[in-house]
From TrEMBL:
Hydrolase recorded as keyword: yes
One Pfam family of this chain: Isochorismatase
Gene3D superfamilies, alphabetized: Isochorismatase-like
Protein name, entry field: Cysteine hydrolase
Organism annotation: Xanthobacter aminoxidans
UniProt signal peptide: none
Keywords: Hydrolase
GO molecular function, one term: hydrolase activity
Protein's UniProt keywords contain Oxidoreductase: no
InterPro entries xref list: Isochorismatase-like_dom, Isochorismatase-like_hydrls, Isochorismatase-like_sf
Highest taxon above the source species: Bacteria
All residue ranges annotated as the Isochorismatase-like domain in the record: 13-188
């Protein structure tokens, strides 16, 4: 259950790539060491329909005090990741993906889920989206948070298994293992080549 595609992927699909930024690349302050391994796969997904691709970017606060509650504790520990200290270029997409913008759009967020951005839902509505293909980082944090919000909003969710990664192998495996057992009516997990083979796009994509 939860493995493979249940049906074809239609032209109302949007590819949502989460947080593939220098911030999370090897050498960044929050590295996902095997992000380079999934990057060529994400490039293939983005190239299929650049105009229906969204790239979220995780934007830390200027200072810990700018966010409430436990976020202050997080950025108190990681003050070097706040905008007071962070090099601005670390917030940018990696160049292999930045070249798709435009027509691909940027969705900036300050929380884990891409749906915390006030621009995501209006953008999805403008694109007439009914299905989201998820890629990016991290499987067990921002991907997972985005996935549950997408399900709550009624989207069909397809996770590109070979286009998501985490700094925690155990966390990554745990999420994919959970999805193999749960949510099979709303979330499908498939390799990118199977997604691309099943994805019917129109000329406007």
């Amino acid at each position: 259950m939860g493995q493979g595609l249940n049906r074809a992927i239609g032209p109302r699909t949007v590819h949502l790539c989460v947080d593939m930024q220098h911030l999370f690349a090897p050498g960044g302050p929050w590295p996902t060491p095997w992000a380079p391994r999934i990057l060529p796969v994400i490039v293939e997904l983005a190239a299929r329909a650049p105009g229906r691709t969204l790239f979220s970017r995780f934007i830390p606060p200027h200072a810990p005090e700018a966010l409430p509650g436990s976020w202050r504790h997080l950025y108190g520990k990681w003050r070097e990741v706040t905008q007071q200290e962070l090099a601005p270029e670390l917030l940018e997409l990696v160049p292999e993906l930045k070249r798709f913008t435009p027509p691909a759009r940027l969705i900036d967020k300050t929380r884990y889920s891409a749906f915390s951005s006030p621009t995501l839902l209006p953008t999805l509505a403008h694109l007439g989206a009914d299905t989201l293909v998820l890629s990016g980082a991290e499987t067990d944090v921002c991907i997972l948070a985005t996935l549950f919000d997408a399900v709550d909003y009624g989207y069909r969710v397809v996770v590109a298994r070979d286009a998501v990664c985490s700094s925690s192998d155990a966390g990554h495996d745990a999420v994919l293992g959970m999805l193999s057992q749960r949510l099979s009516m709303q979330v499908e997990v498939a390799d990118a080549q199977d997604i691309l083979s099943a994805w019917r796009t129109d000329a406007a994509a």
